[in-house]
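Chain A, query sequence.
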Amino acid sequence: MVESRFPMLFEKCPYYGSTETITQLAWAEEAEKGRVNKDTSVAAEHIQTPLIDPKKPIGISAGILMLHIDWCANTECGRRRLTKAEVGAAPVSMGPPPRQGSSGGFMPKGFG
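Chain A, predicted structure.
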């Protein structure tokens, strides 16, 4: 059996080495005011990529690659960067595909 390499964490900005992201800073401020749970994992965007073999039938759930995207909080940088990549499963919907990258910072169940 192959050992999983996920989740993959990208804790530092590759350009400035900052560990803070803009969404994390905003979330921390809201947590200090008691508006949100400080222990919640957040990112500005989540991109979901299905891991489906087109030659095989689809069941009630499918593998999915979830990419967590945010911006470096260093004021000299501000670059968009990957903060986490993880693999999981998501229910299969027969409706139109969801818009990618528009989750508003919250993750589907099972990711975090």
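The beta strands are 8-9, 45-51, 61-71, 80-91. The first helix runs from residue 22 to 32.
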